[in-house]
Design a protein that fits this description.
The chain is α/β, with parallel strands linked by helices and 502 residues long. It has 19 helices and 16 strands. The radius of gyration is 27 Å and the shape is globular.
């Protein structure tokens, strides 16, 4: 390791804050090369935009919230797997789209360099550097390529915090899917916040992630305990290992031992093969025990034994199998009260609660709604196949601020999705819950009834046409294939002549 790389690595790797990391890096590099500023940008491929994370220069540093839609030529350049590892841009280069995008951080008439940051060999983000007009910064390219590796960790953590950590595999390669028993693992929300309350939670997660301790997550249903558990795993030394999400409340009591600890062939009727339990599947990674308070007493005893011995005994087995895992548990119940009532083992409670993190309910952090709601809305629109995503008006935000959100973030996501389905258009019309029913006329319709009525009405208006100009898909602002899928699930017949009876 050369002295420059060593100096950058020591200064950068002692912080996870990207602004601090860039400031320290600039202080070191400005002594060996002409350098005015550094910045980091992330290309979000699915939304054709560049998000700027941080910018530092001689006047200081700032964490950025800026993003910019990228013109077609620059988007195509960023999408190409043939992009070079670095590129030097000078004023007057014949690529005006690049100037439009970089102009957010690079002063006019300055030359700048972009260097690709990588993690495990895959594209992560771009590190940029610029100098004053007239300065020759060609040598700075080699220097940035030499020191980019320690900066990648800070950038990865910043991207993770903002839900932007999507690796881009190079041509001919593929990133392996993480091992997980959670069927919804690919739908886990990123951790998004603006409130000081959630900032404290995020900081606590970063601290415990680096320590090999058991963590207990507390909070109401829907606050995002699964999101925080995933974040702790992704920040930990076990991030390359499996993340196994176990919903303890969904395990049938008769199958808990077999599901958690595995079974040998012939252990019971139907056990035709040896089966690894969820703890064995979590070997080398993290097991997330969601709704831990739902485990029956017998399973609590077995769990305590496994945690103490770091070994499992499969059902029907005679020996033990060593396993290496980290436990993150979560509950919306008061475990102390359950201990007093005798329904939860005291020794297991002490084992789980060494480090506890409470996630506040949404009503205590309303500042998060303006950043959460747009993300959840775009996510729902994409899942529903909508062509356009409506804007959230100030009136809609005020309505959201006034609601108590007993179901927390999960309820917010449900309300936004339901509103998109029942009121398609360019402006969001919130369909807020009332006494557990979907609002509107008709004495409180179910969601399925509301969707059926919207589709049927659009089909009548379109004369039975699903796609094409004036078709129901266009009226509903939804992809035709998505609409056909919805119609099939709801039993709504196709075709002009059959629609009248739907």
């Amino acid at each position: 390791m050369n002295s420059l790389l060593e100096a950058v690595a020591k200064s950068v790797c002692s912080t996870l804050d990207i602004v601090t990391a860039l400031q320290r890096c600039r202080t070191i590099l400005q002594d060996v090369a002409p350098l005015e500023g550094l910045f980091v940008g992330k290309h979000v491929r699915s939304e054709q935009r560049v998000v700027y994370l941080a910018d530092v220069n001689r006047d200081g540093g700032r964490a950025m919230e800026d993003d910019i839609w990228v013109p077609g030529p620059y988007h195509e350049y960023m999408m190409s797997t043939m992009r070079p590892e670095s590129r030097l841009w000078r004023p007057g280069d014949d690529f005006p789209a690049m100037r439009v995008v970089a102009g957010v951080v690079v002063p006019n008439n300055n030359s700048w360099i972009e260097v690709r940051l990588r993690e495990d060999g895959e594209h992560l983000a771009v590190l940029g550097a610029y100098a004053a007009p007239g300065q020759d910064i060609s040598e700075l390219t080699r220097i940035l390529l030499d020191v980019r590796e320690p900066l990648a960790l800070s950038v990865a953590n910043q991207l993770m915090a903002r839900g932007l950590l999507d690796f881009i595999p190079e041509a001919g390669s593929a990133r392996p899917s993480p091992v997980s028993s959670d069927p919804l693992a690919d739908k886990t929300l990123p951790m998004i916040w603006k409130s000081s309350a959630m900032h404290v939670v995020a900081q606590a997660a970063e601290q415990v992630a680096l320590r090999p301790c058991t963590v207990l997550l507390l909070g109401e249903t829907g606050v995002g305990k699964d999101v925080l558990a995933r974040r702790i795993h992704d920040l930990s030394a076990r991030r390359k290992g499996p993340f196994v999400h176990v919903n303890c409340g969904a395990l049938p009591e008769s199958l808990i031992d077999s599901e958690l600890f595995g079974h040998e062939r012939g252990a019971f009727t139907g056990a035709t093969t040896r089966n690894k339990g969820l703890f064995e599947q979590a070997d080398g990674g993290t097991i997330f025990l969601d709704e831990i308070g739902e485990l029956p007493p017998q399973a609590q005893t077995r769990l305590l034994l496994v945690m103490e011995e770091l070994a499992v005994r499969r059902v029907g087995g005679t020996g033990t199998v060593p396993v290496d895992f980290r436990v993150i548990a979560a509950t919306n119940r008061d475990l102390e009260e359950m201990v007093q009532a005798g329904t939860f083992r005291r020794d297991l409670y002490y084992r789980l609660s060494g480090v506890s993190i409470r996630i506040p309910p949404l009503r205590e952090r309303l500042e998060d709604i303006p950043v959460l709601a747009p993300y959840l809305l775009r996510r729902a629109a994409g899942r529903l196949g909508l062509i356009n995503c409506p804007e959230i008006s100030e009136d809609a935000l005020c309505t959201m601020f006034d609601h108590p959100w007993p179901g927390n973030v999960r309820e917010l996501a449900s309300v936004l999705e339901r509103s998109l389905i029942l009121h398609p258009g360019n402006r969001l019309h919130l369909e807020m819950p009332t006494a557990g029913k979907v609002g509107g006329t008709g004495g409180g319709k179910t969601l399925t009834q509301g969707i059926r009525e919207q589709i049927t009405q659009a089909l009548r208006q379109a004369g039975g046409r699903v796609s094409g100009p004036g078709g129901a898909a266009e009226i509903l602002n939804i992809n035709p294939s998505t609409l056909r899928s919805k119609m099939q699930k709801l039993g709504i017949p196709y075709g002009r002549r059959r629609t009248g009876a739907a």
